[in-house]
Amino acid sequence: MGAGLVAALDDGGEDGAGDAGAAQGVVVEAADAAPAPLLRATVSVGGMTCAVCVNTITDEVQKRPWVSRIVVNLVSNSATVDFTDPDRAADIVEAIEDLGYDAVLDSVVDLRRQRQSADEREMEIHVDGIFCPRCPDRICQTLRNLDASRIDILQEPTPQLPRLRIRYRPELPRLTIRHILGAIEATDPSLRASIYHPPTLEERSRTIRAKHQRELLYRELLTGLIAIPTFVLGIVYMSLVDKDDPTRKHLMQPWRSGLSRLDVILCLLSTPVYFFAADVFHVRAVKELRSLWRGGSRTPLLQRFYKFGSMNMLISLGTSIAYISSVAEMIAVAVRGDDAPVPEGRFYFDSVVFLTLFLLAGRLIEGYSKSKTGNAVEALAKLRPSTALLVEQDKMGKQRTAATPIDQLEQGDVIRVPGGASPAADGIVVAGETNFDESSLTGESRPIRKGPGDEVYAGTINKADAVTVRVTGTCGKSMLDQIVEVVREGQTRRAPVEQIADTLTAYFVPVMTLVAMVTWAVWMALALSGRVDEAEVRRSGGPAAFAFQFAIAVFVVACPCGLGLAAPTAIFVGGGIAAQHGILAKGGGEARAR
Q1: Whole-angstrom Cα distance, residue 47 to residue 45?
Q2: pLDDT band, residue 247 (cuts 50/70/90)
């Protein structure tokens, strides 16, 4: 039942995926009748903070003629690219890095070979103990002597990269992955061979998030420490302490060229915040501008003026305008040499500190929320045990049971599943009868009776007596693995409901820049026309400075994150929870649009 469900979803999902993806800005299908994609690359992407980042990467990569489809997921920090040229995987990573993001190629899967029969397996073997240049040749010769007709060496190990990649056709009981590992170790007593498993998409995503969270946390702590004296001096003493207080008088007394001690102190406090805490926003903004205007950019010249930037640029603009305008005002006062006190409200140093404090706190909370969304896929993968009880015959013809890693099982192996345990792989019962709890896969709460000839699945639980099972689905090809892949793919596909958010966020930064300029002009006109209290205008430093406060507010308040994160986060979490209850959703098709 479960296998049929997965197959039905695979068949049905492919038909609707193209139609749904064609209407969206992030799942892009080639417009022309391009050849069917041969390869699928999965890339971990670091540095994405909002939906604008997703659109930027999508627009850039999909311009390549050899790219047929791209899906960029903000929640999982990943990109999945279907392409036709086998030599272009590195170009995908380079294209993303040129935009200012960190990119690591996770895997490249040949879609044609993936559809071939299961009588052939491809493995990557890590070999410890290679100590001389001759060791790789000896290892390869050992494998050729073992069975040259059934073992193809795709990548030889080296002392610098001791990993061997092979393709072989198992033949029980003569040739299995266990025989291959044993033969390698028998080549030299110092060699130790094990199957290499690259980090999963969830593991890489977790690593990227953890690194990003640490960077934000250090900056938040620095800003928090500086925010305390800034709050006491800039807010408490200025708003709550009596004007006749001796300490306040001392702080407000002109020190140099009309600048008070408080102005200088706030400048010194805000400088490390601007350069060492808000730098995470400035660096990203500079990278975005550099990639937009670099030589050889594929972005049309006119489009660079109305479709650019991200949330990082908005934050960087807001804090930079506040800090640089305040420093410029200080320099102008110092050059003027007038000892008259500078009116209050001319400087925005305290705004730089508090804006950075709250924005970093928001990023930390957002990162923590996203870190909780990928747990469902990992929980599904952990349903399978890490070892199996392999039943083999010794030289005397007697059966013996040995604990074996599940990645060393072959199709046709016989394993023992005791009561209370889960099968390490899909298989058919060959001896014994028992009840299996399959609720983790199908949602069926009642135990299912299993006997000889019945199928059992990895991830289910044996609720009664031990049974003997012949393996039919090895690691990576079981129904549980198919479910994990369906859930993972369903979480990365974009739903039609996200189309509006994608359209809005694509033009968010230039629109907000225009709104800020209009806001400044409107308030400037109101101040000059006398429609605003003149005392308030004078306290702010004149009409231009008064209107400037509202323009800065537009920059720092505007944020497309709510638009870009709400729908994908809901789909990401919902798909995982549904899978835990036996419901599989593949793709962002009609079911999610209604």
Answers
A1: 7
A2: confident
Averaged confidence pLDDT in the chain: 81
Percentages of the chain per state (helix, strand, coil), in multiples of 5: 50, 20, 30
Give the Cβ contact number of residue 2 at 10 Å.
22
Confidence of residue 307 (pLDDT cuts 50, 70, 90): confident
Intervals of CATH 2.70.150.10 along the chain = 385-477
Read off the pTM.
0.73
Q: How far apart are CA 424 and CA 458, in angstroms?
A: 5
What would the two tokens of residue 593 be?
Answer: 């649009």
54 and 564 in contact (C-beta within 8 Å)? yes
Q: What is the rounded distance in angstroms from the CA atom of residue 85 to the CA atom of residue 38?
A: 8
Topology at the third CATH level for domain 385-477: 2.70.150
CB-count exposure of residue 156 (10 Å: 0-12, 13-18, 19+): middle
DSSP type of residue 275:
I
Q: b/e string for 41-73 if b means 16 or more Cβ within 10 A?
A: bbbbbbbbbbbbbbbbbbbbbbebebbbbbbbb
CATH of segment(s) 2-114: 3.30.70.100
Report the pLDDT averaged over residues 382-401.
Answer: 83
Cα separation values, 146 from 6, 141, 186, 411, Å: 38, 9, 12, 20
The pLDDT assigned to 194 comes to 92
| Rounded-to-integer distance, Cα 151 and Cα 122, Å | 10
Query: Are 498 and 563 spatial neighbours (Cβ–Cβ below 8 Å)?
Result: no
> Using N-to-C axis directions, what is the helix angle for 311-336 and 508-528, rounded to 10°?
40
- Spatial neighbors of 263 by CB under 8 A, at least 6 apart, are 330, 342, 347, 349
Q: How far apart are CA 186 and CA 179, in angstroms?
A: 10
- pLDDT for the residue numbered 18: 38
| CATH 3.30.70.100 segments of the chain | 2-114
* 243 three-state secondary structure: coil
